[in-house]
Write a structure and sequence with these properties.
Keywords: Signal. With 259 residues, this protein is α+β, with helices and mostly antiparallel strands. The protein has three helices and 16 strands. An eight-stranded antiparallel barrel has the order 1-6-7-10-11-14-15-16. A six-stranded antiparallel β-sheet has the order 3-4-8-9-12-13. Strands 2-5 form a two-stranded antiparallel sheet.
Amino acid sequence: MKHSLLFCAVGALAVAGSGCAYQQGSSYGSHTAYPTYQSHSTSYAPYRRHQQHIGATRLEFEASREQFIDGDIIEGGNVIGGVTTNDVAYKDVYKAGYRLSAGLARDVRPNTTFSAKGFYKEAEADGPVLVGNNGGAVNATFSDFKSYGAELGLRQYMAPQIQGRMRPYLGGTLGAAYIDDIAVTGGLTGPLNEAGWVATASGTAGLEMPISPTGSLALESGVRWTGSQDRTAVASAAGFTDDGSKLSVPITLRGSFRF
């Protein structure tokens, strides 16, 4: 009987001791491991959310309103069929047009993006314009301006990508545009510029804002230079001097989608 009581007492002490050890171990784990892990994950999550996706590829679409601001389509002082020409500017001949483009962009550094895109541009002629005089005013109407082409671009951002924050950037493009032939009718009539390829370049500045983990919107503007077309043989024989290069100002809205 005494041996049984002694055995039960020892067993109870063993169970109680193991229970205390278990409780102490549980308390120790909750005190050190859990807060340390929680602290680490809290500091890590914002870093992951704010970092740029280096090497990511974007699908981009752009829509622009574009207005010529400089460059002459006809130079003054030429005598064409008894008409002495005036300086006739592209901005006087054409209304503000539109430009649509689509392509791919790649983030090669945290703040640097390269792009390649194709585009189509069109501007409607703005009715008869004064082109010269022959003792009286001589007016003429031009055909619409239409072109398409491709370009390579670079954007350098001034700030890292952070969800919900604007990112200012500077950009530039180099490319080539195929411009349709341009004809004139009215006081001067005939084919004026030959269809063909010309060089293009632009400098831009803008703001981009991420709107989702994979998408962003940007608004930008700048100045675009477009090279001069060749005159047709008929226009050259008539006495027209060379076409001028031109400057235009685009206002562009761009959507980007990373995949």
